[in-house]
Amino acid sequence: MIKLLASIVVALLLASASSSRAGDSPENTPKPRTFLMVVAHPDDENIIGGFLARLAREGHNVRLIIATDGKYSPLATSIPEGDELGAARRKESQCAAEALGIPPPIFLSIDRLDTKNGVRSYLNGRKSFLELLSHQLSVLKPDVLVTFGPDGEYGHPEHIVVSAGLTELLLRDGLVDKYPLYYIAWQREEVLDDNTLSFVDPRYVGALANFTEDDEKKSFKAGSCYQPQFTQEQMTDMASEASKAENIVRFRRFRTDEVSASTPREKL
Q1: Own/partner pairs for 24-31, CB < 8 Å, 24+ apart?
Q2: How are beta strands 34-39 and 144-147 bridged, if at all?
Q3: Which CATH code of 3.30.830.10, 3.40.50.410, 3.40.630.40, 3.40.50.10320 fits the domain covering 7-253?
Q4: 172: exposed, middle or buried (C-beta count within 10 Å: 0-12, 13-18, 19+)?
Q5: pTM
Q6: For residue range 134-156, what is the model confidence (pLDDT) as tens digits?
Q7: Is 148 left (phi over 0), alpha (psi -120 to 50) or beta?
Q8: In terms of C-beta density within 10 A (0-12 exposed, 13-18 middle, 19 or more buried), how is residue 78 classed?
Q9: For 179, which of 23, 94, 228, 252 is 20 to 30 Å away at the CA?
């Protein structure tokens, strides 16, 4: 969890992503690009807060889509589960976006993306998520997409559904090449004391990005917006751990084979 919210690690992604698509370094990119991060809950974006702050500082258009309002996670608040908590968490994310220097998030307001309220409820939520996400892609037309890996960062079911849903949408609609997708890819040495955090073999890491101390400070300021989720002691501890980490984030790009009607198929 500490590493999950160590937003400073993220700035890597966008820089590297734009480089892979443009063919040169982010510093030499001729025009601002649109970067879209898709997450499950308010506060998820701050896992790469330093990176988002860097992109905004460099003049890129940084957009954020949040699938749910996180209204079922009271944690360190007396606000009960439900719409009141969801409204509070939306305000937190708006506060965090301002601290990072990016536009307010786009909230899809899906009730939830797991099966706690039943399989039918989950299936309806997933369908709504795909429909709303497809619409936003057509409107925003991002140059780079960023989300969790298929591991959901540390196995969180709604993180996994968001990652799978975005990936499915690109495959379903033939958009894999049009919208390059990058998964955050932690390394084994970055797991530290959080043994639930997933990691990726370094052979599959193809993108790196860094960010400055000032970008990191913006991510800490953004983190302070999330009062209902964490006690002051927890936030202090997370900031302390994050400040020790290398200001680098690793990513792996989602790719798949493209075959034509005349291409011979493999025989399995």
Answers
A1: 26/58, 26/209
A2: parallel
A3: 3.40.50.10320
A4: exposed
A5: 0.82
A6: 999 999 999 999 999 999 988 89
A7: beta
A8: exposed
A9: 94
Q: What is the pLDDT of residues 12-33, one digit of tens each?
A: 333 444 444 434 343 445 589 9
How sure is the predictor about 6, in pLDDT bands with cuts at 50, 70 and 90? very low
Tokens of 265: 């198929």
Nearest Cα to 68, choosing from 165, 139, 141, 138? 165
Q: Which helix (H) or strand (E) holds 85?
A: helix 83-100
* Token pair recorded at residue 241: 């751990």
What type of residue is 130? L
pLDDT at residue 12, rounded to an integer: 35
For the chain, state the CA radius of gyration: 18
Query: How does strand 106-110 pair with strand 61-68?
Result: parallel
Q: pLDDT tens-digit profile of 169-203?
A: 999 999 999 999 999 998 887 776 666 788 899 99
Within 10 angstroms of residue 180's Cβ, the number of other Cβ atoms is: 21
Q: Which two tokens stand for residue 52?
A: 């988002």
Is 124 exposed, middle or buried, given 0-12, 13-18 or 19+ CB atoms closer than 10 A? middle
Kindly tell me if the per-residue pLDDT of 209 is higher than 90.
no
Tell me the C-alpha distance between 244 and 213, whole Å. 12
Cα distances from 82 to residues 4, 71, 78, 104, 118, in angstroms, run 24, 5, 12, 22, 17
